[in-house]
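User: Hey, my collaborator sent me this sequence without any context and asked if I could get a structure. I don't really work with proteins. Can you help?
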Amino acid sequence: MVFYITEYATDQAGFTASVVDRFIATGTVKITDAPDPARTAPAEKLSDRQASVPRTAAPTTRTSEQTSDGHRRSIDWMGIETETLEDLIRPGLRALCIGINPAPASVAIGHYYQGPLGKQFFDRLQMAGAVSFTAPTWQDDTAYEQGIGFTDIVKRPTARADEITEKEFDHGKRLLLNKISSNVPRILIFSFKKAAQALFGSIEGNGIIKGVGSEGTITFVMPGPYAKREEVANKLVELSQLFRN
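Assistant: No problem. I've predicted the 3D structure and written it out in structure-token form, which is a compact way to encode the shape of the chain:
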């Protein structure tokens, strides 16, 4: 997998030169000539505390399974009809990304991780070599084609995680454990530690969590959205090695 590393790109992603060197040393990143600017537009400048992610336009073509609403669906959630995002799960996935619950912005668009912090998650997956975003399609669709699935513990969208009730976490936990058992993805990637704790109980730290998870899977917890750059880099190297093994 090849990434275009320039002074502009590293500044946009919020990574220092030492962080980029670490990815080069592990084979996650290779240096190459920059792409044709007519085909790849520079990302919008973001703050130092918010990592950037390649912006993607709506897909120009859709599969027969897609609709104009993307992955937005209406389901029965604990007896209440709820508009949410459908699970992108199938047997044989390299990894399943698990969030707490969908952001309202993501449900409105019909695709996973479209909120301000959620978009950072895709950037980290790409930096770890888990997925390559090169075509102008939605990132969750591209990732799913490359063996990366998506779901949430709670399917009811809320603006904040503290709006979710314990009953909802318990209900979602039972449903999700059954889905994991039925499909057995190789790696469980939690976008937030709270999602991992809701499924497996108390967890210390982040990155690869040994001794925690479902049978036949590896558990990985992403660092927090405002974690220090060096911590993020170290954990993404761990994730990169999982995908290379």
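In plain terms: Strands lie at 72-77, 80-85, 95-99, 148-152, 187-190, 207-209, 218-221. You can pass these tokens on to your collaborator as they are.
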